[in-house]
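Contributing: when you submit paired examples, paste them exactly as shown. First protein:
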Amino acid sequence: MKRRTSLLLRKLSAVILTFAMLLPTVVFPAMAAQIPEPPEIESDAAVVYETNTGRILYAKDPDTQYYPASTTKILTALIAIENLELDETIHFTDYAISCIADEARHFELQPGEEMPLYSALQALLIPSCNEAASAIAEHIAGSEEAFAELMNQRAQQAGAVNSHFIYPHGLQDSMHYVTATDMAKILAECVQYDVYREISGSWECEILDAQDSTYYYDTHNALLRPDSDMNRDWVVCSKTGHTWYAGYALMSYGVQEGMEITCAVLGGYSYASVVEDTVRLCEYAFEAYDMYDSTAMGTVLVRNELGNCRVDFRQPLAVLTPEMPKRPVECELTELRFLGEGVFEGTVTMTLPDGTAQPSPFTARVTDPME
C-alpha cells in the first residue's frame, strides 16, 4: 500500500511539472528597452501606488510624517460609506458646528439641521466642509474621540502603519499626521466604492438638506474643472487639502489602459504646484509602466499515464516595466495537496522578470485515471 501511494504521488508530481512547464508560454510579455527617468517635483513628498498589484511606482520621501489637512476627509468618507446607508440622516448638533472656528466653516447651518449622508458626503468632499466631518463622526461613533479610534483602526487595515488621526476633518494638531505611502493606500481603499468616485470626481454639486435648502458649490481643483488646462481624461477623482502648517496636499486617482493608480502629494507650496506635480507623476507612471493584465482563466489538458488531467488556473496581475531583463517568467511548484478521488490542488509561484514572486493557485482533476 505504501509503495502504491508513493508511485501515485510521483505520477501526480509529473503532472504538475508538465503544467508548470506549460505556464510560462502564456505569461511571457513583450518588453521595451529603457525606462525614462522620473520627473522632478516641487512638493516635499509623493507616492504613486498601483492599486491592483500594491506596487509603488514612484516615491519621494514616502514614509516621513506630514500634516494631511483636509485630505483627512478621504478616510472619514471611507468609514461613513462602509458603515452607513446613503439616505441615512446626519444631524448637525451644536458641537458639530461650534467645534469648528468661524473662519473654517462652510455653511450657514444652525444646530438641529440635518441632511442625508449622500449630501453630507458631497459637502465633505467638494467644498471640504469641516462641519460635515464632525457631524458624520458624531453620528457614527458618538464623539470625535471615538471616531478617531475607528479612523486609526481602518487606516491600519488599509496598510497605513505610519499615520495617526485625531480629527475627522484634518484641522491642525501635532498628533494628526500621515505619510504619502499611507495616504495612497487609504485612497486605494476608498476608490473601490462607486459613490466615492462619483462625488470626489465631481467639479460642481447641489447639496440638498432635509429642510429643502440647496447649497451650490464648485471645486477649485484644477484636475477636475473642465475649464482648466490641467484637466486630464485619466483623472477619476481627487481631493485637495491645505492649512498653514500642512502646506498644500492633493490625493488623486487615475486610470489609463488598465492601470489604476493613486497619487498622494504632500507638502506642496501652492495648489498649482501640487496639481502640476500630480500630473507629472501620473503621466510618468502611465508612460513608464505597462500593465500586463493576465487575469483571464486558463486551461491546460495534460495527458499522462494516470489519464487526462484538466488544470484550470487564474494568472495574477503584474506590472512590468521596460527596464526589466528580457527573460521568461519562471515557475516553481510550491504547494501540492492530494484531495482524493483524482482531485489535487496546489500553487505554482511565478517569478516575474523584476524578481517579484506571484502565486498562482490551481485545482486539477484526473478525469480518466488508470486502474
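Second protein:
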Amino acid sequence: MICDGIATMLHSWPNGQVVLKAMNGEEYVQAVLEIGHVDIALIDVCMPVRDGFSTLEWMRTHQQRTLPVMLTFDPTPEVVSKVVRLGARGVLGKNIDREELHTALDHVSATGYYMNEHMTMHLVGAQHSADQEPQGRARVLSCLTQPELEVIEQICAPDDPSYPMVAERMGLSKNTVHTHRARIFGKLGVSNRQGLLRAALNWKLLKRFHH
C-alpha cells in the first residue's frame, strides 16, 4: 500500500517517471539488472529479504550513479547517520505529502541532495562530535578568503539554493561562483555540497550557527 501510494504521488511529478516498483531490496536488485540505470531510487529502510541498509551497500558497489533517497517511519539520529554514511542523498518520513516529495526529488535532481531537518540534524550532530580545536579552526580560516567565506555562506543557505541562484544573490557570474566553489572544495578537501556543509559546520564557518 505504501509503495503504491508513493508511486501514485510520483506520477504527478513533472520531472521524471516511475520505471520500477519492488517489494524489497532483492526484487529491486533483480529489476535494476534487467532495466539498467535508474536516476533516483526511493528506498524503504525497513524491508523484508534485503533491507534498506543492505540495499544501499549493494548500490555503493553496483549502482554508483543512482541517487538513493531513504524512507522511514522512524528517522532517529542513528538511522539517519547510518544511511547517510552508506550514501543516502536524503531522508524522508513515510508520512510525506506529495508537495514535499516533489520538492525533495527536485532538489536531489538539481543538487544531488535534499537537506531537510533530518539531514541538517545529522550534520549538526557530526559537528558536535568532531574535533573543535581552536587552532584548527584558525588554520582553516586563514586559508579562506573573505569572498570564499561569503560563497560558503550562500551555498549552505537553509533553502539549498542552486549555483545559479547563489550567483544571482551575490551579483556574481556563474563562472565566478564555480571558480570559488572549486577553490573552496580543494582547500577544505571536500567533493560535494554535503561535504562542504559538514566542513562548514565542523569549523563553525556559518554565521547562523555562531553562538
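If you have annotations for the second protein, write them as plain sentences, like these:
The CA atoms of residues 146 and 159 lie 22 Å apart.
DSSP finds eleven helices and three strands in the chain.
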